[in-house]
Specification:
104 residues; alpha+beta; four-stranded antiparallel sheet; 23% helix; elongated
Length: 104
């Protein structure tokens, strides 16, 4: 005859030990404050935006440079700035010839 395993005791400082609702036990649940904060950070730092005023540069000069130095490049050129990484601003360059990334 096999004995039943001993009852599991909650770990110290675990969600169960702190009296969290049953829906939270065993992992995160949708709509928690942490999930909302992560979602807000992703929205804030993911994707592109218009180029910030302090990071603007002459798009015409860049297009001229690319025309003479990037094989197959042809415009027109549109520029968006990636939302994150402001210590090293990074830009999405889109032209008829393709998409490029510029990091300053």
């Amino acid at each position: 005859m096999r004995a039943d395993p001993p009852a599991r005791k909650p770990l110290p400082n675990s969600v169960e030990d702190r009296g969290a609702p049953a829906a939270c036990r065993g992992g995160r649940h949708a709509g928690s404050a942490r999930d909302i904060a992560v979602s807000q950070r992703q929205e804030q730092f993911s994707g592109t935006r218009e180029v910030r005023e302090q990071h603007r540069f002459d798009a015409g000069l860049l297009a001229e440079y690319m025309q003479s130095h990037v094989e197959g490049f042809h415009g027109p050129l549109t520029i968006k700035q990636f939302k994150g990484g402001q210590s090293n601003p990074t830009y999405l360059l889109e032209a008829a010839s393709g998409r490029y990334v510029l990091r300053r």
